[in-house]
Each structure stands twice: as C-alpha cells, then as structure tokens.
C-alpha cells in the first residue's frame, strides 16, 4: 500500500511515496534499486529500499501523469498507470514478487525495460498479424542500434505508426513520411521510415495471398517453434537456414530491411525459435506452453 503526503514548493508540489516490498515468503526485500517512471513524460527517479524493505521517493509532480514502478529482478504483478493530480492523495496496492534468484539470459543485464521484455515477450509465440508487423517495423529500426534504444521509443512508434496497423501505414503519403522524419519520438532515419511504408504494402499482399501474414511466416518452421539448447550466449547464431529462406522470400516480395540477421531476430522475438539459454527460467516455461520440438 502506498501512502502519499505533499508539501508546496513554489508552484510545484513535492510528494513522497512509501512502499513496502516483500518476497514470495513475505519477508522484506532490502537493497533493491527501484525506478518510478513517469510514462507520460518519461522521466525517472531513483531510490533504494532501506533496512526495513521500505523505500522513499521524493519528486516533483506536475498536474497530471501516470506513475509506473519498475525494479530489476522483480516482476510487477499489478502495474496499471496511476493518474496523479495535484493535491489528490492516492492509495494503490501494487504487488511484486522476488525474482532475484531466477536465472535469465545474460543479455538482459540490469535494465528494467529489457527485463520486462525478456520475461513477458521474447520468444512467446505470436499469431497476431499486427504484432508481427510491429516487430518488423521495430527490428528494421534497430539496424545499427541497440534494442534498448528501440524499446525506449516503442510507444512513440506506436503513436507515430497508427498502432502498427499495416492498412493505415500502407497509405502513408510522401508528406506523411516527411513529417515522420521530423518526429523525435522515433528513430529519424528516412530510409527506415520509407521501408516501413513499403513493407506495409507488401505485408497486405501477403495477407491477401495467405489469408494472414502469420500463416505465411510460420511455414518456415513447419508451423511449430524450434527449441534450441544453447548453454552460453556465444552459441546462439545470428542467422539460420530458415531465416535465410524467410529473408530471401520477403525480399522477392518487395520488403526491405529484412536481411537474414533481422529475420532471425524476428523469429526469436515472435517465438518461431526458442533461443532462451537452457538455464533461463523462460526456456522451460515456453517449451511447455508452445509444445515445441527439440532441435539438436
């Protein structure tokens, strides 16, 4: 439970938040670095839990924004944005459980954004065409950059590209592309933006031919996720026979920014392959959920 108290500082207000973090057994968790992120303004405030497992955050609050809690090593069970208005006390129950002992793929690092993506999305089989298109846009945008940068701009992309609806993106005019090239919420690379529009048009043609992009792409793995057995990161390939075939066919159909490496990343993201390391807790979870076949 959170308790809020506010004091006036000029025209702004300072509000203090206290929350008690416990693990699955109910014991207080100490020394966990926490982030309170303003979703609307994307500002972050750092703090650390004290001996009692409580943490205190002091920050300026504008008239309105959404508060979100993040913590490396923790999974936020209930994290709906909390609307906060000046002079309005807010009480909200947010439960977290201790995931510190869980083994994860080493690429996650200590980024809350990467942790959430790894635990909730990466490798989960996707069968929704809009989600497929979203990943195609984001993966093309990543070329030459880190995935963390792309994830930070993901919501900006969602707004800029009409919720990743390929039907709408396919109709973008040259003037709309010019406008997107000036949008600081996305990666302002004209070639990547133009590719997203061209790819949307090619995407629609695939839907016409195969009824859905999902039906088309899963053919490259015979309709089932491939379960690999990697023990260390260096074993994970950048491409595969399947991604080569996938990439070649997409290029033939007019797609761009869909090289074999990009398409292997897509296959990993949408669960066409399970490339979690064998000691990662998600490896077994996704293997069971997807009913995958083992690849030796």
What does this protein structure show overall?
The protein is built from eleven helices and twelve strands. The chain has 296 residues and is an alpha+beta fold. It has two domains: 3-101, Immunoglobulin-like (Sandwich), CATH 2.60.40; 120-294, Hypothetical protein, domain 2 (Endonuclease III, domain 1, Orthogonal Bundle). Strands 4-3-6-8 form a four-stranded antiparallel sheet, with no helix packed on it. Helix 2 (129-142) runs antiparallel to helix 7. The model is unreliable at 1-98 and 292-296 (pLDDT under 50).
Topology:
Elements: E1 3-9, E2 12-20, E3 33-38, E4 44-48, E5 54-61, E6 64-70, E7 74-76, E8 82-85, E9 96-98, H1 112-120, H2 129-142, H3 147-152, H4 154-160, H5 166-169, H6 174-180, H7 190-210, H8 213-217, E10 226-227, H9 241-252, H10 260-269, E11 273-274, H11 281-290, E12 293-294
Parallel strand pairs: 10-11, 10-12
Antiparallel strand pairs: 1-2, 2-5, 3-4, 3-6, 6-8, 7-9
Summarize the structure.
This protein is α+β, with helices and mostly antiparallel strands and 296 residues long. The protein is 35% helix and 20% strand. 31% of the residues are buried.
| SSE order, one letter for each helix or strand | EEEEEEEEEHHHHHHHHEHHEHE
In percent, how much strand structure appears in the residues? 15-25%
Number of strands: 12
Quick one: biggest sheet? 4 strands, antiparallel
Cα separation of the termini: 49 Å
Number of helices: 11
Would you state the CATH class of the largest domain? Answer: Mainly Alpha
Average pLDDT number: 74
At CATH's second level, what is the architecture of the largest domain? Orthogonal Bundle
Domains (count): 2
Gross morphology is: globular
